[in-house]
UniProtKB/TrEMBL annotation, chain A:
It holds the Pfam family DUF742. Residues 1-30 are annotated as: Disordered. This is DUF742 domain-containing protein. Residues 7-23 have a biased composition (Basic and acidic residues). It comes from the Bacteria. InterPro entries: DUF742.
TrEMBL record, chain B:
Keywords: ATP-binding, GTP-binding, Hydrolase, Nucleotide-binding. Belongs to the GPN-loop GTPase family. InterPro entries: Gliding_Motility_GTPase, Gpn, P-loop_NTPase. GO terms for molecular function: ATP binding. It comes from the Bacteria. The keyword Nucleotide-binding applies. This is ATP-binding protein. The lineage of its organism: Bacteria, Bacillati, Actinomycetota, Actinomycetes, Kitasatosporales.
Amino acid sequence: MTPPQRQRREPAPEPSKPKEGEGKVGNPERMYVVAGPDGERAELDLVTLIVARAVDPPPSATPEQAALLRLCAAPLSVAELSAYLGLPFSAMGVLLTDLLTAELVHARSPIVRQAVPDRSLLEAVMNGLQRL
Amino acid sequence: MDFKGSDTIPGPRAEDQLPHTAQAAAKIVIVGGFGVGKTTMVGSVSEIKPLTTEETMTQAGIGVDDNFGSATKTATTVAMDFGRISITDQLVLYLFGTPGQQRFWFLWNGLFEGALGAVVLVDTRRLEVSFDVMGRLEERGVPFVVAINSFPDAPRYPMDELRTALDLAPGIPIMECDARRRASSRDVLMTLMRFLHSLAMTGSRT
Ligand SMILES: Nc1nc2c(ncn2[C@@H]2O[C@H](COP(=O)(O)OP(=O)(O)OP(=O)(O)O)[C@@H](O)[C@H]2O)c(=O)[nH]1
Ligand SMILES: [Mg+2]
């Protein structure tokens, strides 16, 4: 019996947009949040780590905000926050923009893939996996 | 997915909390067609009970009867399972099992842009269900390794026959695994890391 045959694909010249026929998507491909008082835009990632700056939510906090602040007393990824809060990832953008602007939380940027992989990072990960 | 209300939210258990020293996180994606064992692999290596994040997609109707030109809209929920491995006090690794339905894969593309690499899980009973996602990784330049999840009744092909069938570029590792076993899943992740490391040594990317 012969297995079905695949055809390798070439890297797309530039980040490909959803193709015709895949439909228009209501959500943006990337999500940005306002990080910092200077209105700087940062990309929000599933593994951006969020940490509350203060333990107690201010009285002005909405229930969602208060819940989020309590969850990230210790660092927690946006994915985990989304899972615990029961909110879709897209809803996290708005929630976090407000909290970042109000300086109630910190965001720690994720480590993202580089054109040439970072060897010391990979070695650290290998050492960590070895201990698993 | 509705907001659960602040009093009812079970947060991470005390032992599941990251230390304050956690500086940054990286992610790996585990992809493959429907039912190949993605969730199983995430669960077998994760230090936390796997969690689920969801996204609701609003898609303009396409390729369906359009009612005299009026656009139809469909909302679809795509769920992703994920787990976590603390590497050091500063560094955390997240593993995401991405949905198998090929027509939704692109919706998460922006989110997976920064992934260090991917594990493509394949089931030899349905090799073709993983073809589309492999092509998408190639298009995006996301390095990947292939893990054959060995189901008992699955046909067994020689590795070189599978390499040919999957049209793997030279150098891409392919191995057998049992996603239910932590040691086996860990070996797959280790193979991915060694592969990424070799790309760093040659200074190139596939
Ligand atoms: N024999 C065997 N069974 C496995 C293995 N890995 C997963 N399974 C079983 O296969 C079934 C599907 O596994 P899942 O982990 O749910 O697969 P999935 O890819 O997450 O599936 P979807 O999310 O529905 O696409 C489950 O019943 C698993 O227990 C394996 O290595 N060997
Ligand atoms: Mg699954």
